[in-house]
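hey m, so remember when u said the tokens were messed up on ur end? i reran from scratch. heres the input so u can diff it against urs
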Amino acid sequence: MKIYRTYTLTITNVISHYPKQIICSFTLALIIATLFFGQHIAENTQDIWQLITGQADPYQSIVVWQWRASRLFAALVIGAALGISGAVFQSLVRNPLGSPDITGFNVGAFTGVLLSIALFGNLYWFSVLGAILGGLFSALLVYIFAYRDGHSGFRLIIVGIAISATLSAFNQWLILSVSLETAMTAALWSAGTLNGMTWARILPAAVLITVFILCAFLLNTRMKLLEMGDDTAAALGVSVNKTRLALMFVGVALTAVATAITGPIAFIALAAPQIAKRLENSASTSLGSSALVGGLLLLSADFIAQHGWEGSTLPVGLITVSLGGIYLVFLIIREGRK
């Protein structure tokens, strides 16, 4: 028993001292497994080397570098976007339940995409624009209805859940009202999936996500000051309302772009900042660590979705919902005990 406790303490100390290095190591191992794991692709190190140097069979190269690599890149980028979005909102409401999944901003983005598909068809840039506008609209509703002499984190979450339920009902009505072809497209997309991801689809979204991530890091200092309280932040020269609105816009935009590409993927934004905080043993939320953990979580979930069931590939959203639901129950119990 003492040996077990010693090993556990040693592992905990190593993780707390080198969290980012450990996350990067796991991510690198998963990247290699995602690219080269599978029948008739790479059965030994020589096959992997031939794929890296371009000497492999053309079919194998297409599978690895066109199909798998684009899907892997999408998982990392979108996971990072969701992780940072969750970190921003959890910082704003000062509550670990304050993420786009819970407050309904991703449902609003879903509403925007559904309206775009119903009105203009399944066009890429219209879907992205619809997702951003839908997410901003839901955020505006939450912001307005939750205001009462300021914004309480708990009130924002409760109002967000109510808005999310209302928009979910509207989404169901909208799917039942459109044509069968449009409804099938929306239903497949709404599961949250990386299936069929291509470089042409993910690269423009990656540019947008990179811009919004840079904006989040530029606002990071002011976000940390807001965590100290509105009065303290105002005394230190921070424009509280403008900063909060700017952070909400960045967080919603990151969620909306990710939702427009893959559909709503739940619980990455909820879990990534909390896991990153525990790995770093820090009281505040780190945007960089949240991005790393978000990318690792989504890549892990997609690996399970691809290889967990032989002969079939599941939407990654089903995996994140299944695992995230367990995490949400744990989080609610822990917060209730506090």
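this time it looks ok to me. Residues 4-12 have pLDDT under 50 and may be disordered. if urs says something different then somethings off w ur setup not the seq
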